[in-house]
Amino acid sequence: MARNFNLYRYRMPFSRKGETNTRHTHEVREGLIVSLEDGDTRGQGEIAPLPRLSVETLIEAEQQALDLLSQWQARRAIEPTLERAAPSVAFGLSAALSELTGALPETCQKRSATLMDCADIAAFIENLQRSDAREKAPVVKIKVGRDAPDTEARAVLTLMTALPWVKVRLDANRAWTLNEALDFARHLNARTDSSIAFIEEPCQTPALSLRFAQETGIKIAWDEHVREADFHPNDAKTSLVAAWVIKPSLTGSIARCRALTDQARQHRIDAVISSSYESSLGLTQLMRLAAWLSPETLPGLDTGHVFQTCIARGMPDDPRAIIPLSSLEKIA
Prior knowledge:
The chain is of the alpha/beta class. It has eleven helices and 13 strands. It has two domains: about 5-105 and about 320-330, Enolase-like, N-terminal domain (Enolase-like, domain 1); about 115-310, Enolase-like C-terminal domain (TIM Barrel), CATH 3.20.20.120. The strands form three sheets. A seven-stranded parallel beta sheet has the order 4-5-6-7-8-9-10. Strands 3-2-1-13 form a four-stranded antiparallel beta sheet, sandwiched between helices. The protein is globular and about 65 Å long. The chain starts with a strand and ends with a strand. The mean pLDDT is about 90.
């Protein structure tokens, strides 16, 4: 039977600015959707490099994807090549292939840590206090490193005091010097032990983040560091590390992500599957991936709400309109 593929480009505005780190925002998200056909079977995937965080540009990803898809159509094995491909290409094509073969389970991890900024905390507390919220928001992820450390610490402390049952994950994106991170911790006082699960990459280097953890007793999580060449899973100081944050669009193929989650489990470290502002198609696949690779850990997938529409397929219980592939720009 013949193999066929289609590649589409999407351009989707954010309903609110998408902040990819502490210093840059974007008004539009761009990416590629790949659709595979092999006889009667189908598979789709999303290739969406994240500007300033991905090592590859969208143009580079598009060309690499077209080369690999041509090889796949000619019935050459591309799985080994994916391990050397750009991360977004490796993830998108491996997801499409996994759907094609049925390797990606349909079971979906619909729940996620709730994502917010410090500026959102007051409204969040008010909304939860007016409802039965203990089951609705057991874990929140708060972006920090955007204001003065003492100001942000007071905001986080307000949440922990008002909602003591909520576990807090903090994400600084390497924004702080060691002194700034220590200043933040000092203003949190004793509440940190019971409420804070971890801080992702608090300082500008992994070594400084480890010093922060040693001096404060607050555990950290690796995010950027997981993707760096000098990342060593067997580091003797892993007792200071509570989690590895695995973002497939920035990390690579499903096989690569599975290897990392297996390593994390061996070290008794949580593996948090996390999104990189993918469309609804990529996000639903990340939900399935989280349920498969790390079912015991709540993922970080609360980014779908920043878009006004869905692409190709909807999110669970999502009323937003779905843009069909036929409405996107077809590349091949």
